[in-house]
Records
---
Amino acid sequence: MAQDWLKQIDQDVKQYDVVLYMKGSQEAPMCGFSGFVVQVLKKLGVSFKDVNVLMDSDLRQAVKDYSKWPTLPQLYIKGEFIGGADIVRDMYQSGELQDLLKQKGVGTPS
Amino acid sequence: MAITGTELKALLQSAFVDADIIIEDTQGDNNHYGVHIKSSLFKGKSRLEQHKMVYAALGDLMQDRLHALSLKTSEK
């Protein structure tokens, strides 16, 4: 079971430019940290695939195993694990996040 | 079962011996903490690596005793 999730996660982060593993959905985040990252991405006009880890506990564990990172949310940009809410906040405030998106060619309507 | 700020600080201090550590109980419930760690051990490491070091020091705590942790790491 958990093995399928690892494959799914690997596929998703490679298929979609930006993937956010979070609690809840982008329309209805269920945790402050997850909600924060959603807000940042929306502010930057980045469209992303959100995955609600609350829907399956095996998925939730697989997400942590895949990145070897113990908390949620988890942001991936072009297959690269960026970090959680704290790192996203730091990078957004310093402008690094915006630069990274540009550098990776992730479309944000300017 | 929650962890007290004192316990948390002691645990982190033993892992980051020279660090300046500030712990904030953000909701007063021994379960949501803001942690600021300034240590020379973070020198030259990316944010991701620095955070991973902190998570490694906390080990199993993240699984069951700590609900939310806001991490801020910086080089000393």
---
Amino acid sequence: MEGLERALGRRGLVNSGIGVRNLYNRFVSEAESSDRRDLWLPVGVALAAALIALAAWGLLVAERRDHLLGSSRATASELRDTLEAALAEHADTVARLAALREGLGSEPESGRLAALQREVGSLLDDLLRGRARGYALSLRWDGIEVYARGTPSSDRWQRWWRVEETLALPGGLRWQLVQWPTAELASARLTPIPHYLLAAGLLLSLVLALLVYQLRVIARQSRFLAASNRALERRGAELETAVGERTEALQDAISELQAFNDSVSHDLRSPLGAILNFTSILEEDFRGRLLDEEGLALLARIRRSATRATALLEDLLRLSRTRRAALRFERIDMNDLVEETFAQLRAAQDDGEVDWVVAPLPDAVGDRTLLGDVLANLLGNALKYSRGCEKRCIRVSGRRDEDECVYEVRDNGQGFDMRFAGKLFGLFERLHSDGEIEGTGIGLAMVKRIVRRHGGRVFAEGEPGRGACFGFALPLRELP
Amino acid sequence: MSAAAILLVEDDRDEVDVALRALRRAGVAAPVEVVRDGVEALEALGIEDGAASGPAPRVVFLDLKMPRVDGWEVLRRMREHPRTASVPVVVVSSSDRREDIERSYALGANSFLLKRLDRHGPGGYLAEAARYWLELNRTPREGG
């Protein structure tokens, strides 16, 4: 395995900066590809098996052949002895035949040869009739055939089975006895089984080779996969660590940013407050003295800008608080909270007469500060947007449904176009320009965020000129 | 120890000027002593040097975020010292975070005001509070 890993390292697969997916793909394609080295062993095994099969076949065939040859030789020997003995008894017949033979020469005329053959045949037929069954015999006398019996097998692969004996005849004559197996004998004694076995053995060796090859491939694949697993695991661990570190760094950065944001926002309050205070003082103390109408108008514009900046700041701080602050759940008397919030609003901006109706509201379970912010925003909006009305009317109502408490704030002010209802709760989205109605575009986004943190939902509907209804629903909740 | 009825503990010069003007305009005649941080406040209250002399102020307006010694520390020390233990303390802050309010009351503040500009005018909220604590409220010292 070490060698494999070194090899992988050499190819730069483990330590390169390639991504996890690439790493995996490369391993898979490596594992699936075949390697020439995979062939050596199977080929070797195939050759060995084939050689063994061949050797076995060879041995079987040789053994068989020796056996058959041995028995043929025995037959031929026996035949020779018999013939020698028989011919020894007919010495004068043999001498007569010898004279005949001599007279024929090396290329005998067919008629005289036939006569000779008849003579020999009559001499030997009985003797040879029952003997050496299955063999074809041929007796030669100085090169010419004087006796023949049976048809030798024509199979030239059986030449090894030919046996030759020399008969010693009276008078110093010699005859050649050639013995062949007939086709019948051959087919009876030579079984094809060894050949079948050889074929089977060769087939087997092929199969074995394939098996070995496949096993090698599998072994190689599993080695690669194991290595790839390890590499991927290592990669995974590296990535996890990196992700962990990155997340921590990000969280630290976010906390820092938030802290910076809060601290800056907080610190901006004082200077903005000072601008508002001193412009008020200027207006109060120097009206008519150093400041004429024009001066007062300019002052008013400074005041408006500073007010807007302060409002934005306050909203940003509140928005930040909704994100950061841990929710402190408690049972809240909503009527109480609404009265308190409204009182604070009126103290801050006494806008004149308001017909103010608060229906009995179901208790809510939530964070009092944050829900107070929600109500401050909704009620504040209701006040703002109904400012132009002759008789302003704000109704706060609520009900407890099966799984939620719903609260609604209705006003009879400007209302809004329902086509833009989707944008209402978006951050910094406004449906009215700042000249018409002051606002920062943060309030409703903050409301949505707070309500969402409580697991609730916000909704709104309105009609231009006919007022609006803003509301939120909180899920029913048990206090822990 | 001064004879000022109102002790204003505030490090921002602008806030001080606005407060003084508001008190003047509201007709609050009581003398006002202004200190810039917690250390001066403790000295003015006679807590720091240990030697008590003269009456304690009738109301203290206390800013929270100050250098060196902050408002909470002053409050804590005031409540520990018998001379100043029952002097009304009005915490004045630019932030009304719930934690700040709770902590102030826990340390013994009587009131918590958020710096704001409303229909009472610049510094008007503080003048309103001053009038209440000086004219309406009774402290043990003033009891009959």
